[in-house]
Amino acid sequence: MNLSFSKEFSYCIFGINFSAQVSEIDSILAQDKFSKEDIVLLLSTNVEDRNKLYSKAAEIKEKYLGKKVHFRGLIEMSNLCHKNCFYCGIRAENTKIKRYNLSDDEVLEAVMFAWENRYGSIVIQTGEVNTKSFANRVENLLDKINKATNSELGITLSLGEQTEETYQRWFNKRATRYLLRIESSNQDLYYKLHPNDKNHDFGARIDCLKSLRKVGYQVGTGVMIGLPFQTLEHLAEDLLWMQEFDVDMVGMGPYVEHPDTPLFEHKNLLIPQEERFNLALKMTAILRILMKDINIAAPTALQAIDPLGREKAIKCGANIIMPNITPGYYRNEYKLYDNKPCLDDAAEDCKKCLEARIHLTGYEIGYGEHGNSQHFASRNNKNKN
Ligand code: SAM
Ligand code: SF4
After folding, report:
1. How far is the CA of 124 from the centre of ligand 1 (A)?
2. Which residues have CB under 8 Å from 250's CB, separation 6+?
3. What is the CATH number of the domain that holds 80?
4. Is 341 in the pocket of ligand 2 (CB under 6 A)?
5. The whole model's pTM is what?
6. What is the per-residue pLDDT across 235-248, written as a single tens digit (0 to 9) for each?
7. Contact in structure between 283 and 303 (CB atoms under 8 Å)
8. How far apart are CA 320 and CA 300, in angstroms?
């Protein structure tokens, strides 16, 4: 399907008629606002037009955020999870994986690596556990992290749905950013991806995002791209939903199937991985045009499909990279999907490899900086004035 249209424009100067071919994509890219239909069209672009989309996104990123890319050292602290999302390899009912839970000392070792190598920030991610002892553990761990690093590291948490009180307790310990993907903003699709029960309630997820905003976090969300049952209209709605929610950060990437999950049954509905990858890049570029100063992460799932995936995302709008600094021997057990990259690399190898790759893209790494969301800062300043 070729969705590249063109419009004939006529204009008259000194009585002479001129006409010019302007492609539909050019005229959409020149607009300030996009409708759902515009976004669907941008998501359907062919190779030539998608390069225009990527260039526009890169131009906007440079104008608003400059040439810097910021690191977040990713620590996959535990794969224990009480939920059963249909797509995820570490879901509770997957008995084929070995469960692990890093000790505080192991987490601190990774934290020290990030600090000593001037990563600026870390992300702590786990499966979802919402017991009191988990909340206490994270609170105490945050104290230890702050003490060991003179409170210099930026801290992002991605620990799933929790009570507002728990979010507040962690925020009080200098965790200022939180990632909680909505997965899909379409409720019907959401329930095709999750069991329809109290533990996987769409409304509760939205409420968590609202609590995070209320507590004062920089709020990050995101979706998976190329899911079974998902249409371009769903993806366009996702982007408009993120704009409407006024998110501060986004991490979205291709869905990558895992054979030991219920969603694998629908693999016959999937578009090829390469197309999911291209859709993810287009989503990144469109979001950058829609939300010029937010932080957008280049997710690892891109690299599972294309070894240069994250660098390509940087070139079309992403500005955050999350090098994995989890001790190598645990990474194999935090397998959300097949083909997870860098399973055997030590954190030091990951750093060197990424550094070289980012330099090749023409961008520079903001070493030692938090790289907070500028969008968050401007909204807060506006509210103060
Ligand atoms: N448990 C927390 C949560 O769900 O918010 C945080 C960790 S969870 C593993 C992080 C993200 O991994 C999810 O939000 C989901 O989008 C992504 N994910 C899980 N399975 C995936 C898959 N098969 N392909 C791509 N992304 C996946
Ligand atoms: Fe658990 Fe998060 Fe995976 Fe869902 S996506 S099963 S909550 S780790």
Report:
1. 13
2. 220, 221, 222, 242, 287, 291, 294, 295, 296, 297
3. 3.20.20.70
4. no
5. 0.93
6. 999 999 999 999 99
7. no
8. 11
pLDDT, one tens digit per residue, over 282-325 is 999 999 999 999 999 998 889 889 988 999 999 999 999 999 89
Q: Assess whether the C-beta atom of 123 lies below 6 angstroms from ligand 2.
A: no
Ligand nearest to the Cα of 273, by number: 1
Ligand 1 probe mutation, 224, 257, 283, 340, most atoms within 8 A of CB? 224
220 pLDDT band, cuts 50/70/90, is: very high
Confidence bin at 22 (pLDDT 50/70/90): low
Cβ of 179 below 6 Å from ligand 2: no
Q: Which ligand is nearest to the CA of 90?
A: 2
Answer whether residue 170 is part of any domain.
Answer: yes
Residue 341 has pLDDT above 80, yes or no: no
CA of 202 to the centre of ligand 2 (A): 14
Q: 1 lies in a domain?
A: no
- Rounded to whole angstroms, how far apart are CA atoms 53 and 67? 18
The CB of 90 under 6 Å from ligand 2? The reply is yes
> What is the rounded CA–CA span in Å between residue 179 and residue 182?
10
Determine which of 6-10, 174-178, 329-333, 381-385 has the lowest per-residue pLDDT on average: 6-10
State if residue 255 touches ligand 1 by the CB under 6 angstroms criterion.
yes
Does residue 230 sit within a domain? Answer: yes
Considering the domain boundaries, does residue 2 fall inside one? no
Q: What is the extent of the structural domain holding 282?
A: 7-384
Ligand 1 atom 14: the closest Cα is on which residue?
181
**What pLDDT sits at residue 48?**
85
CA distance 151 to 128: 26
The residue with tokens 């090749």 is 360
How many structural domains does the chain have?
A: 1
* Residues 161 and 208 sit within 8 Å (Cβ to Cβ): yes
CB of 300 closer than 6 angstroms to any ligand 1 atom:
no
Going by CA atoms, what residue is nearest to atom 5 of ligand 1?
160
- Going by alpha carbons, the residue nearest to atom 4 of ligand 1 is 160
Side chain identity at residue 358, one-letter code: I
Distance of CA 30 to the CA centre of its chain: 26
